[in-house]
Amino acid sequence: MxxxxxxxxxxxxxxxxxxxxxxxxxxxxFFKTFTKELKSKNPFGALDLGTGGGIHRPPDEVDIVVVxxxxxxxxxxxxxxxxxxxxxxxxxxxxxxxxxxxACKVSLGGISQQFSLPENIQMSMYSAxxxxxxxxHLMVDDTDPPDVQFNSQGHLYLATPEGGxxxxxxxxxxxxxxxxxxxxxxxxxxSKFPWLNTDxxxxxxxxxxxxxxxxxxxxxxxxxxxxxxLGVDYVNGEVSGxxxxxxxxxxxxxxxxxxxxxxxxxxxxxxxxxxxxPVPCAIVVNATGCHAAxxxxxxxxxxxxxxxSIPLPIEPxxxxxxxxxxxxxxxxxxxxxxxxSGLKLRRDGLGGDYVCTMDPTQExxxxxxxxxxxxxxxxxxxxxxxxxxxxxxxxxxxxxAWAGYVDHNTKDQSPIVSRHPSIPNFFFATGFGxxxxxxxPAVGRAMMELLTEGAFVSIDLSRxxxxxxxxxxxxxxxxxx
Length: 481
What we know:
Structural class: alpha/beta
Distance between the termini: 57 Å
Number of helices: 13
Helix content: 25-40%
Strand order of the largest sheet: 7-8-6-16-17-18-15-19
């Protein structure tokens, strides 16, 4: 069906919307035509597209389905509806509205630009600016302004003699991208942070501006509240299958290049019910975090031939977060500390609380079987590094602890932000690991641009394409040890 025919009348367009979008999604510039027609004819003006919100059942049809309503999915939904507030219906499907297992739960809420990949640097710089002006973005009429309790404080990265040169090389890349960092010798660090034990440390880097930490759950709520106010529909359910262009895909099917593998509908299983509701749509975005590979396997990604033989290399990685209390701790001048051991620590409030976690190595990675806190893991892994680096915390008291999952990219530990090469209307926004929270605003904007413009406009994330795995290419951060 030609675009002009699809826009003859508002009533006919509503009826044909799914068919129109599904056909034109083959060309990634389809939203340019879509937007141009909207501006010139505004055929949706008389249509009731709903007010959005938390709904019990999904709509009869939508334009875009975002699977996963965490901080990445909610950011994507917000930016899409801000771009096209009318004429496009967005549905977010989230199976766990408590976000008990989400990366947002275990994040320390830190934001820093101290990366080695320019893409990560630029995303964090944008997110920092977004947080600074958050009221301009996420304010909802007749409600209190969003308050993520941003605490402006630098991040202090420490490097051993083995990692010193890597840290300095990273600082050069950061400077080229407009990041201001201060290189510190052990003596300078002791002067600035007298409580810090610098034994075994060669050099450190300290963020001068646009760094700190914030309440990540408040940011998630703010994204959701604003997205709903713009008309995004949220539904509690699970995408358990797909309907393709010509047939239903089954778990035991193999990929056939002669078949059209565009998605025409998602199948939403409702909670506490055997009911499965098909929802016609034009685009599906996989923002399910640590469950992204499970969703991809429903489309036989990783189970076919050629491009379909490459699996989505995402798996859940368990992470523990602990809150300790020590009235005699570092105090208000405590930065976000990133130690070569993997320890991360920051101050939490004004009452002597400190939040800490540690990135596990492949050898001592906790089992993902049960979501429960392992206090022995703290005693054997975190405590030795903690007391060694900050001796005045030796008399701490454990105050709280919780566990969650992050979406770990097993290939190169970098994000995947692209569409699938064989399924042209299936997109990925996953693999962010512990950086999902601070990068969420930039990722939401980037996915909006990819879907509406056919390309990244503000920050070029094309190196994070899924197709790099077809050529066994890796795009990795240079870790400081």
